[in-house]
């Protein structure tokens, strides 16, 4: 009576120590090598890149970075894109966290008619694939002067993040102790005052983790930026990368520069991941299993 | 509640709650509304933003799908013609089938590899923290960067992949990857698997580590082998999470745009065209806004339905979240 003798995948059947280690090491190399390759290539000259793709750079050439930062070959200097991306990410986050915080707090605390219905509504907006909004959005942002505008982009990104963030905020505020705000209300604070002066400062940790969950997708967003930002001076980093599409490697001499741009775009998120690993992974788990 | 408002008049000369309500319902509701006003105000910014940037464009998309419009001339009502054209458009069917192929294979790839990695790490291997760090690293890359990077890796003459194959004597395996119709879609899927397998890995690892220790102990006391433990203990216990993460990966992959756009623009010969890129091209390259809206409606119907069913099945109840 050994039913498990049949129909078990050989890989799963017995994962002896050696095989497990080999699997992990091989996959780790597959995952890390392209990323290392990106860093290494960005500090090589184009001749080195084509003639000795595996070789380590010798000497390290940071020229590529200098060139893209000031904008020699590219129409716009990379610093412009970087500042644009930074402004938009920061602005979107501030709007998103403030609006979602208020709404989540209201849904967690208020016992008003329509509370449950509103939550159901937000849950439905979570299921909307955002790509389908793009055509009307293209036209009315044009009419409102929000196309090619950082403010417009911030409002769009903040809105796209809202459904998800509100639901998480509400869940958090449900577990938030009533006593603190009640004391503030008794002392003559308004609801809003109590929220700003008592609830928000105590919830710094939760608010920071909502920021962490949202930073990486806003920084990387391409689709809406592609449509809503068509002037070169307002573009973001992912657009700068998409614009660098190569034709064939031999015919050009901007490979090193392209890798420098890619590295500079990825680097802030890597540093950020390095600093907040735990929170990022925990946030992802909570977000995915909601 | 504003300060100067007179208190609502309430008639208390009654003999039952029902009669009290019947006599005073206007005042009661007004009082309730005033008391709740602050909660409505707190909700207002979110509600306005979602209405303006989500509900309104959604409705306009649905409406525009019944018109022909190039963005300049007045639009023309053509009823279901866009959908009829869509039905006859082989490029649309191509995009739809590429999207489904992409979604199915990248789901199987990421969840499959993620599960293997999670089970391997859960054995408390040495350096578990490092592996966990490394396997999640590509997930943090902006998709545009991943795509641009892999365009270089896949390049025929100087790209890493072919150079590597040549140098280890496997020159016959050299391919044209994203440059030819036969291999392009597969190559793009491989990049998606490369980037995102770390995501299911993290989720599944958390699920495996949530299995109570005594269950494992009981299992080892019963003297069962590791394969039996995986089959009768680990897999059944993480099944809900496994299903959940698979559906999530599937939905996420249905929305693919960045990867395809930066790597191939949907080419060569539309062999990697997906719904997202098809919609973009019809709208912003060909200025067929009505037709593109019809694509958007189909996309909405497919993805919204899958997501909604998923939310129901997983009992994502807003009220008892």
Account of the protein in words:
The complex is a heterodimer of chains A (290) and B (321). Chain A has 290 residues and is an all-alpha fold. Chain A has two domains: 3-69, no CATH class; 75-243, MetI-like (MetI-like fold, Orthogonal Bundle), CATH 1.10.3720.10. Chain A has helices at 10-13, 17-42, 46-51, 63-70, 78-109, 115-125, 134-143, 150-174, 178-186, 191-202, 204-220, 223-228, 237-242, 255-288. In chain A, helix 8 (150-174) packs antiparallel against helix 11 and helix 11 (204-220) crosses helix 14. The longest helix of chain A is centred in the last third of the chain and has 34 residues, at 255-288. Mean pLDDT of chain A is 83; it is low at 1-8 and 246-250. By secondary structure, chain B is mainly α. Chain B has two domains: 17-64, no CATH class; 92-313, MetI-like (MetI-like fold). Helix content of chain B is 72%, strand content 1%. Chain B has 13 helices and two strands. Chain B has a two-stranded antiparallel sheet with strand order 1-2. Residues 316-321 of chain B have low confidence and may be disordered.
Please give a handful of descriptors for the protein shown.
heterodimer; A: 290 residues; mainly alpha; MetI-like fold; 2 domains; 14 helices; disordered N terminus; B: 321 residues; 13 helices; 1% strand; flat
Integer tally of domains of chain B:
2
Q: Can you list the strand order of the major beta sheet of chain B?
A: 1-2
Give the low-confidence spans of chain B.
316-321
Main beta-sheet strand count, sense and barrel state of chain B: 2 strands, antiparallel
The CATH topology of the largest domain in chain A corresponds to MetI-like fold
CATH level 4 superfamily of the largest domain in chain B? MetI-like
Cα distance spanning the termini of chain A = 41 Å
The CATH architecture name of the largest domain in chain B reads Orthogonal Bundle
Alpha plus pi helix count of chain A:
14
Topology, number of strands of chain A: 0
| Overall radius of gyration of chain A | 24 Å
Q: What's the story with the biggest beta sheet of chain A?
A: none
What share of residues of chain B is helical?
over 70%
Most residues in contact: chain pair: A-B, 114 and 104 residues
Structural class computed from helices and strand pairing of chain A: mainly alpha
Q: Would you identify the CATH H-level superfamily of the largest domain in chain A?
A: MetI-like
């Amino acid at each position: 009576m050994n039913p498990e003798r049949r129909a078990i995948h050989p890989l799963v059947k017995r994962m002896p120590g050696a095989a497990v280690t080999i699997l992990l090491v091989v996959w780790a190399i597959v995952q890390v090598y392209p990323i290392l390759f990106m860093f290494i290539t960005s500090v090589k000259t184009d001749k080195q890149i084509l003639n000795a793709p595996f070789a380590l750079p010798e000497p390290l050439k940071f020229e590529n970075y200098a060139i893209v930062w000031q904008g020699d070959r590219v129409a716009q200097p990379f610093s412009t894109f970087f500042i644009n991306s930074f402004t938009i990410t920061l602005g979107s986050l501030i709007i998103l966290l403030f609006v979602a915080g208020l709404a989540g707090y209201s849904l967690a605390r208020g016992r008003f008619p329509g509370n449950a219905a509103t939550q159901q509504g937000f849950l439905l907006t979570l299921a909307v694939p955002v790509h389908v909004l793009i055509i009307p959005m293209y036209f009315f942002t044009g009419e409102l002067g929000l196309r090619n505008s950082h403010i417009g982009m911030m409002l769009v990104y903040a809105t796209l993040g809202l459904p998800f963030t509100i639901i998480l905020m509400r869940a958090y505020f449900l577990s938030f102790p009533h006593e603190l705000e009640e004391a503030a209300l008794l002392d003559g604070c308004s609801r809003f005052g109590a929220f700003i002066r008592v609830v928000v400062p105590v919830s710094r940790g939760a608010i920071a983790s909502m920021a962490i969950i949202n930073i990486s997708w806003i920084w990387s967003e391409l689709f809406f930026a592609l449509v809503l930002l068509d002037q070169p001076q307002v573009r973001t980093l992912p657009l700068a990368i998409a614009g660098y599409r190569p034709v064939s490697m031999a015919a050009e001499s901007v490979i090193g520069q392209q890798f420098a741009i890619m590295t500079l775009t990825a680097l802030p998120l890597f540093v950020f991941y390095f600093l907040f690993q735990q929170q990022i992974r925990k946030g992802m788990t909570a977000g995915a299993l909601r | 509640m504003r300060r100067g408002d007179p208190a609502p008049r309430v008639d208390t000369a009654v003999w039952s709650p029902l009669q009290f309500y019947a006599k005073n319902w206007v005042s009661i509701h007004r009082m309730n509304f005033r008391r709740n006003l602050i909660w409505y105000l707190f909700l207002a910014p979110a509600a306005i933003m979602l209405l303006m940037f989500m509900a309104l464009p959604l409705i306009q998309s649905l409406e525009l799908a019944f018109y022909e419009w190039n963005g300049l001339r007045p639009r023309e009502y053509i009823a279901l013609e866009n959908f009829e054209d869509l039905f006859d458009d082989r490029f649309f069917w191509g995009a739809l089938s590429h999207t489904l192929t992409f979604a199915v294979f990248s789901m199987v790839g990421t969840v499959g590899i993620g599960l293997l990695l999670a089970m391997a790490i859960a054995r408390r291997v040495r350096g578990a923290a490092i592996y966990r760090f490394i396997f999640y690293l590509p997930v943090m890359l902006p998709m545009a960067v991943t795509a641009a990077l892999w365009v270089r890796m896949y390049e025929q003459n100087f790209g890493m992949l072919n150079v590597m194959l040549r140098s280890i004597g496997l020159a016959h395996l050299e391919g044209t990857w994203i440059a030819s119709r036969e291999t392009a879609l597969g190559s793009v899927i491989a990049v998606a698997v490369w980037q995102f397998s770390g995501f299911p890995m993290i989720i599944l690892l958390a699920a495996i580590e949530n299995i109570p220790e005594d269950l494992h102990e009981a299992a080892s006391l019963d003297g069962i082998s590791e394969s039996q433990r995986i089959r009768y203990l680990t897999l059944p216990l993480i099944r809900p999470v496994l299903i959940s993460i698979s559906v999530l990966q599937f939905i996420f992959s249905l929305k693919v745009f960045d990867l395809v756009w930066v790597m191939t623009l949907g080419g060569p010969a539309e062999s990697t065209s997906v719904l997202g890129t098809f919609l973009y091209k019809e709208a912003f390259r060909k200025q067929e806004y009505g037709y593109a809206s019809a694509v958007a409606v189909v996309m909405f119907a497919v993805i919204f339905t899958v997501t909604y069913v998923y939310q129901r099945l997983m009992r994502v109840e807003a009220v008892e979240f």
